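N-(5'-phosphoribosyl)anthranilate isomerase: C-alpha cells wanted.
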Amino acid sequence: MIHIQMAGIRNKEDALMCVNEGVDIIGLLVGQMHTSDDFLTKEKAKEIKDYLPKDIKTTLITHLEDGDKIIEIAKYIDVDYIQLHSHLDESEVEKIHNALPNKKLLRLIHIDSDGNLLNDISKMKYVDFYFTDSINLKTNQFGGTGLSHNLDTDKRLVETLDKPVFIAGGLNPDNVYDAVKYCNPYGVDVNTGCRGKDGLRDKEKTKAFVHNARKN
Ligand SMILES: O=C(O)c1ccccc1NCC(=O)[C@H](O)[C@H](O)COP(=O)(O)O
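Answer:
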C-alpha cells in the first residue's frame, strides 16, 4: 500500500480527519525559512501529535539548519520521521542521526520545473527515505509551492536510488493516480492540493486524494 503524508496540518481536528480518511503520516512544520501560515510552534505540533492514534506516524518538517535545535524539537514532539531541508550541512545531519538513531531521516531532493535536480545526492550520507519536491525560484519557496515538475525525474530516481522515495510537488486529487502509476514511489506527499479556501484541510479533497493515490 502506498504511504501518504499530509503536510501543512494546522490543528488536531484536521489531523484526525486526515487519519480517518486514510492518511498514514502527518507532517508538522516547525522552524521556518520563508513565510508560510502552515508553520507551527513546537507546543502546537506536540498537541496535534498527542491527539493522534499511536500507530499514526508523524514527521517534523523543518527548515532549521542547527542540528541541536532539530534534535530538541524532534524529541519534544516525539516524531517518527524528520524531513530535512536540502541546505542542511551533512555534519548537522550526522549529529541528528547519532543522537536520534530510531528516527527516520527524509532527505529533500529539489527539482526545478524542467526536471533538473538542485541537490547533490551523492553527498547525502544519512538517508532513510528520499523526498522529491518542487521549488519556486521566483519566491524562494522551498516547499508547499503547489507546483508540479517533470515526473520523468521522479521516476528515474525511484528506479535508481537505493532507498525508498516519496514524491511531492503539486500533487492533487486529479493528478495523483497518474503520478503513482508512472513513478511507482514508496509514498506521496501533499499540502496545497488538499487545502480549502480557509487554508485548512478540505475533507472532500483529502478523501479523493487518498482514494486516487491507492487506486492503482
Ligand atoms: O507545506 C508547506 O507550507 C511548506 C512550507 C515550507 C517548506 C516546506 C513545506 N512543506 C513541505 C511539504 O512536505 C509539502 O507537502 C511539499 O512541499 C508539497 O507541497 P505542495 O506542492 O503544496 O503539495
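The chain has a mean pLDDT of 94. The chain has seven helices and eight strands.

Cheers.
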